[in-house]
Amino acid sequence: MSDTTYLAEGPRTAIRPFTHADADEFTARARESRELHRPWLYPPVGPDAYAAYAGVLIEDPTKAGFLVCERHGEAEGRTDGAIAGFININNIVIGGFRCGALGYGAFAHATRRGLMSEGLGLVIGHAFGPLGLHRLEANIQPDNTGSIALVRRAGFRLEGLSPDFLFIDGAWRDHERWAITAEMR
Asked: Is 105 in contact with 140 (CB distance < 8 Å)?
């Protein structure tokens, strides 16, 4: 666990920024979660890939990366602060737009426990509070029912379909466009 202070805390989770010191835990959890993530997501599974990935999230002002961490050692055999998943806000635009695009993933040990729902709520609060954003979008492949359920639970609305939106796993993939605004909270 990093010594970084939490940005927001809920009853079972807390969020904090990525650090370079998280490489070992993050990549181990990503390797353990490959089956869960495919074909939707390809988080870094090695130290060099993690350094590049986290470096962008740490240094690029148009991105904000958050680790969703378990609180109070809830998971059996895990210490307080274990990484349950991650939520990134990409393509942050300020000014009149004040919007960002979400990307996220749970790790296998943390699925179906409500930890990512709580963590997403904390990130949304942080985005609409300290980050000063007005709108968050999540672009999700239509067959990714787990991801759609997560944003639906958080209050996002379906706004449409974007054909051939992102290049993932060797092909251009359609995505549903989900969004939430500060007023919707």
From this structure: no
Pairing mode, strands 157-168 and 135-140: unpaired
In 16-155, alpha helices (H): 23-32, 34-37, 47-59, 115-128, 145-153
Q: Specify the amino acid at residue 23.
A: A
Using one digit for the tens of pLDDT, what is the confidence trace for 51-69? 999 999 999 999 999 999 9
Tens of pLDDT, residue by residue over 11-53, are 999 999 999 999 999 999 999 988 877 878 878 889 999 999 9
Cβ neighbourhood burial of 185 (10 Å; 0-12, 13-18, 19+)? exposed
Domains in the chain: ranges and CATH: 8-138 (3.40.630.30)
